[in-house]
């Protein structure tokens, strides 16, 4: 069980920006490409420090991705930064063709992802991005849960020679949901705590409520849960899923995404095909016009809060 | 650097056209009209203008050509084979099972820079290439050929804005202006005139050229950039199906495949332009 107090950190967005600045200090081939989004991307300091390494595209996401592909094919490390909602919908064909199919190792950064822009409405939500990108070959999909994972993922992305999509939100996240054991790897799930009664597989900013739900389950019911940050949705860490699901415990997947086509369906598909018939709940945003409000309020509304997740877990063992 | 004279290049164009038709005939598929339309432009680009060859293809300092109108790949394949990027007989596998020589450009074929085929994609990639070359002060020039039907894609206009904003005078976009697209003439489908004034208003330096005149193409493409600090836009007036009388300006040859008889007539017509050409 997680017993240590979780230290609240910065927004993952801030960590992303700081990490890029640190990398750009020594890497003059690193470029940030933005679509009038340097303010929302917390990239104003980057632009001030490295004016030659920021490329402003204006509000033109298709061009953002196309230009980034062109930079990448000239051996530049291009970080294309735009709100996840626009980046993965407006520019989807550029992602599919110019980045993935043409094998241009662009680093696509979806900011204010999921329902971070909760009250701004569905135009500004990205609850489809895992689903559409999972169906496109040659791209890793990563949603870091905390500041630590964000920095690790950005540093890894900078070195990758294949396309990657990284998304995160605006809200302050924990510095680190578990001590760094030096094993962070894109493509490998991160076990934050091990327990006996449930397994939570969660991703991105939906991981923290799972950690809290595990604490509640312990305090209120004396039950314990394994909590995994599946920061990488693709490639999926099937070895870890197999190991943790093999004991037959109820599995709960949690994501800030449609219940269709995301982490939950990926895990369910793998488990079914492996003959792992655990009780399974996919917790995400249902297929309806999404309720509006803050990210917290939307999480609570759809049962992605600590309490909601605790109740889901209990309902799986007490019919 | 490349020293073929105009007569030799004209003969090459006729040879390229013959080969395009033969390989399309063999594959029973291809974009015939457009490939014949861009043949002379590619001829001049690869034989006279661009610094790219099999020898420097792995160097970051090579010039870049991205074919935005990817569907006219047969012309590109034939020219690349002639440049020595791969053995020409590979093209006998065009569009066959598991061949890298598919109906749109892919990097699986040596000499191809980007996988294109979806329209309105090439120019933005070229913008990224040209900007990187500027940052590197490498002198790399970047070229693309756009289709006239493709000009309706909004993404092109995003890229036109970008190229002018960043003063990409190492970028040249060539419009294959044969005035026809798959359904009908551009003017009926979605008119693009006055295309020169539009591009000028977008901050490009614009020139018209006869897209089948080797010397005129050479003169135009040798005088890049047309204006310092401006990207260059070449409106190449072309004929869809150029070089084969019954294909010229005929919609059905957009992706028509010649019959055996049509192929023989076409090769005979082209051989008049190229005495060295041996009919299939
Ligand atoms: Mg046309």
- Which strand-content bin applies to the residues of chain A? 15-25%
What is the residue-averaged pLDDT of chain A?
A: 96
Shape of chain B: globular
Helix content of chain A: 25-40%
Order of helices and strands of chain A: EHEHEHEHHEHEHEEEEHEEHEHEHH
In which order are the strands of the major sheet of chain A placed?
3-2-4-5-7-6-12
Q: Give the CATH topology of the largest domain in chain A.
A: Rossmann fold
Q: What's the end-to-end separation of chain B, in Å?
A: 32 Å
Annotated CATH homologous superfamily of chain B: Thiamin diphosphate (ThDP)-binding fold, Pyr/PP domains
Poorly predicted regions of chain A: none
Number of beta strands of chain A: 14
Over the alpha carbons, how many angstroms does the gyration radius of chain A reach?
A: 19 Å
- What's the order of the H and E elements of chain B? HHEHHEHEHHEHEH
Structural domain tally of chain B: 1
What's the CATH first level of chain B?
Alpha Beta
